[in-house]
Amino acid sequence: LTKDRYPNMKRGKFAELQGSHIQHFINLLGPTRVLTDPNDVEPYNIDWIKVVRGYSGIVLKPKTTQEVSEILKFCNSERLAVCTQGGNTGLVGGSVPVFDEVILSMSLMNKVIDINPLSGTLICEAGCVLENLDSALEEHNLMMPLDLGAKGSCHIGGNISTNAGGLRLIRYGSLHGSVLGVEAVLANGDVMDVLNVLKKDNTGYHLRHLFIGSEGTLGVVTKASIHCPPRPKALNLAFLGTDSFKNVLNILQLAKSCLSEILSSCEMIDDPSISAVIRNLGVNSPIGQFPFYVLIETSGSHTAHDEEKLNAFLEKAMAESYVLDGTVTNEPSRMQVLWQLRERIAEALLKDGPVYKYDVSLPVEHFYGIVPLLQEKLRGTSAEIVTGYGHIGDGNVHLNITSKFYDQDLVHDVIEPFVFKWVADHNGSISAEHGIGFKKTEFLHYSKKPGAIALMKQMKTLMDPNGILNPYKVLPED
Ligand code: FAD
Ligand code: 2HG
Ligand code: ZN
Predict the structure, then answer these.
(1) How many angstroms separate the alpha carbon of residue 312 from the centre of ligand 2?
(2) Which ligand gives the minimal distance to the CA of 220?
(3) Which protein residue's CA is at the shortest distance from atom 49 of ligand 1?
(4) Atom of ligand 1 nearest to the CA of 433
(5) pTM, whole model, 2 decimals?
(6) Whole-angstrom Cα distance, residue 432 to residue 169?
């Protein structure tokens, strides 16, 4: 881990870690929850896609809000920068240090505090793994309102801090709706308790929203209360092949009108994406090869009712030749295999080499437009595999470009200017759900007006005057 990995970035004027700091942390947490052995610390310095890495020498593992508070109070007074880390599955380099920031791992704050089946509310600590929460809720016939491929590792605190979207946003909405309250520790160690469990509470500014999507730059989320929907009794999954993007849109429109309230996911996969899953992970597709595939999930409370609706939709989609082939199942093991074809694309693409990722929102008619343009533009370069897939129901395409090696010039001079200008020209957003993190700060201006960026900076200064919380992330350099 070399210190000059980012030659154009200047380390902020923060203190460097001293032996006396380490001793203070050991006094606070005990020796086993302060990691300083470089072998133990290294995994926390490297992000999931292995392109962003820092050289922090310490990982702290608090177990209580009080400990988080003591840590931040000390770091603030000593001017030690802090990078909070959840499951480290973030895709924009926000979860790892850029230089030598103290890493605050939330992994031991993983207790479920309360599940109320009557109100459908969950209160838990921020380090709970998303999948574990969903399993805990299952006993009470409830479910988590979000689901994503990283569910086995990501934390609810990380989901909240990135405002993660995922596979079921079309049905359950964003975390700005589902998160009822949070407890967060501010940069100076103060505990901000807005852990509301009520659905309605219009008592002034809704402070919890400051922590949803602010990527660890305004505070450390320590607890959350979440509104959890009833677990559906009937689930169906259809995996459909089609010949054109036009027909993908036809399928989406038909699914919305025929399935309406039972539609719980609508995802699109293009052929290069599914080919990577088949080739690199050995998962088989149950149908022939098509340029595009659509996954449609229905969830409801009445099996016969849902099947009737789904069949009517499929009959119409086939009659109109929107769908050329497909398979439908309600068997849990088969559904799991089908979901792998979608959920494991990110993992599969990484096996072919470094991946340049662009997570963009677009008006749905432009969802796939940039993919063929880039395929043409990048033909004959080191980065020939261009794929597009994602949350078509929410207008959120994941543009992924796989390269034989990391080609800085191609990324900076060719791909990024083209992608971000195209997205801005088509009234899109340069980050639909992954956030800005470390990798997208210089492009924020494509999606936020100068006045909005200025207000964001003022809020940061107000809440974290010494700038110790996740520096170099979200906000562009002055
Ligand atoms: P981390 O990666 O550890 O951190 C992410 C950011 O949140 C960092 O800035 C970090 O500082 C901050 N943070 C973490 N915990 C806290 C806390 N307690 N308090 C304050 N700040 C904190 N994202 C989507 O939106 N939709 C998807 O469908 C989706 N699918 C994915 C699939 C895969 C296979 C992978 C690898 C990632 C996917 N992601 C997706 C991206 C990622 O945003 C989510 O995985 C998740 O929300 C990150 O949670 P985490 O606990 O891993 O957070
Ligand atoms: C998904 O929806 C994730 O699978 C990851 O958001 C997207 O890797 C990506 O580009
Ligand atoms: Zn996604």
Answers:
(1) 31
(2) 1
(3) 158
(4) 25
(5) 0.98
(6) 12
- Nearest ligand to the CA atom of 210: 1
Please work out whether the CB of residue 346 comes within 6 Å of at least one atom of ligand 2: yes
Q: Give the range among 8-12, 173-177, 240-244 with minimum mean pLDDT.
A: 8-12
Cβ–Cβ under 8 Å, residues 113 and 125:
yes
**pLDDT, average across residues 253-280:** 98
Determine the distance separating the centroid of ligand 1 and the alpha carbon of 313, expressed in angstroms.
35
Exposure b/e, 71-107, CB count within 10 A at least 16 = b: bbbbbbebebbbbbbbbbbbbbbbbbbbbbbbbbbbb
Phi first, then psi, for residue 92 (nearest 5°) are: -125, 20
Q: What band does 478 get if pLDDT is binned at 50, 70 and 90?
A: confident
| Contact between 367 and 269 (Cβ < 8 Å) | no
For ligand 1, atom 22, which residue shows the shortest CA distance? 216
Residue 244 Cα, ligand 3 centroid: separation in angstroms?
22
Q: What is d(CA 288, CA 111) in angstroms, rounded to the nearest whole number?
A: 45
Q: Among 130, 154, 360, 398, say which to mutate for ligand 2: greatest number of ligand atoms within 8 Å of CB.
A: 398
Q: Vertex 469, ends 467 and 474: CA angle to 5°?
A: 85
pLDDT of residue 4: 62
pLDDT tens for each residue of 188-217: 999 999 999 999 999 999 999 999 999 999
Q: Indicate if ligand 1 lies below 6 Å from the C-beta of 346.
A: yes
* pLDDT, mean over the chain: 97
